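Notes continue from the previous slide.

Worked example: a multi-chain complex. Inputs as given:
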Amino acid sequence: MPYWEKDLETLSRTDLEKLQVIRLNKTIEQATQSPFYSKTLKGKQVRDIKEIQDLPFTTKQDLRDNFPYGFLSVNKKEVVRLHSSSGTTGNPTVVFHTQHDLNSWANLMARCLYAAGVRDTDVFQNMSGYGLFTGGLGFQYGIERLGCLSIPAGAGNSLRQIKLMQDYGTTVGHAIPSYLKRLYDVFLEAGLDPKKDTDLHTLMIGAEPHTDEQRRRIEDMFGVKAYNSFGLSEMNGPGVAFECVHQDGMHIWEDAYVVEIVNPETLQPVPDGEYGELVMTTLDRVAMPLIRYRTRDLTRFLPGQCKCGRTHRRLDRITGRSDDMFIVKGCNIFPMQVEGILMKFKEISSDYLITLDTKSDNDVMIVEVELDSKEFVADINFLGNLTQKITNELRDEILIKPVVKLVQPGSIPKGEGKAVRVVDKRVKS
Ligand code: ADP
Ligand code: ZN
């Protein structure tokens, strides 16, 4: 079984935890150099990794309250780069890196790519935004570390993406999943079929929640294997957790992070295998260590060990962020529950929008979903029956009856960045 760093990736749990304790204590010491942690962590050390539970949490609000330099743990002259989050859920947060931090991030990223079968013989086209968003440069340095020929294409401009793929024989691509359907449509409009007219064999997809059904659709459209890639800028960006070739959960690198899953209300660890909020601690970051950072992402540990032999635990698909959840008529709903149902219907495309509104003092939930271009027919009976079937399945899943509207292919507005799945126009009382 090939590994990028066998010694680290296949450590026994006992040895992994020993390493974590050493690195955590070093990290705490480093963190206390920052104005923020100097108040809360001074003199703290752990003897066993479980003792991490005695340390205070760090929240996104703490990052915002101490913006921009309150978490900086080195002299500013050691810092060589900053990145900030996309700001999907509010003001962006900033993370600083020293040269050491960038090196270890590139290494983690290379480990992820290698585990998913990418090799130095591949031509890798990164269709992610370069700049403050970590998906561009984060991948870039990992691709180069691995030794692939990299094409830093950046986001959007689908015709150019296709041309690059054809000119240079791209074999691996990286993009956000919601973009890939659009790219596929442009292939079709140009009279091309990505399965026959490119050399693509692998796509890395991540940065936004998506269901397994969505992944399978991407694999069918492009004739590739698509691997789930998870990261967040507070923990560097991409390279935090990634599926290996077995596509059986995302390995999270426990030599670089302590990973906990807690009940978001009680903040107590959930029993193994149960869903909760992911909490992460950096173990190899100098400029800006973060201790017990509450990611707000909801997931669970997968039981057992992966066939690949890597011993680091695996995370299940991220079902959403705790703040993605919306409540309609007392029912708690996640966009991914809706997507899971919609993607079962082959007649509809991957693009959908949930609008929450107030009508006569009542909440209404409208689900607009685009018909697949091949299935788009103006037959009233066909559309009526399909709408009814989707409505019934959604009601069984989310326990309220939404208004389902089938709309023409291409009619839901799309931006360049992460897909917006929910618009809340409700009157707040
Ligand atoms: P922002 O929080 O502004 O979107 P980031 O670009 O740092 O900023 O995004 C990180 C977040 O994106 C994660 O916390 C998670 O919610 C989401 N995310 C990243 N990768 C995945 C993935 N593979 N599956 C689901 N969600 C993901
Ligand atoms: Zn594996």
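Summary box: The first helix runs from residue 6 to 9. The CA atoms of residues 131 and 137 lie 7 Å apart.
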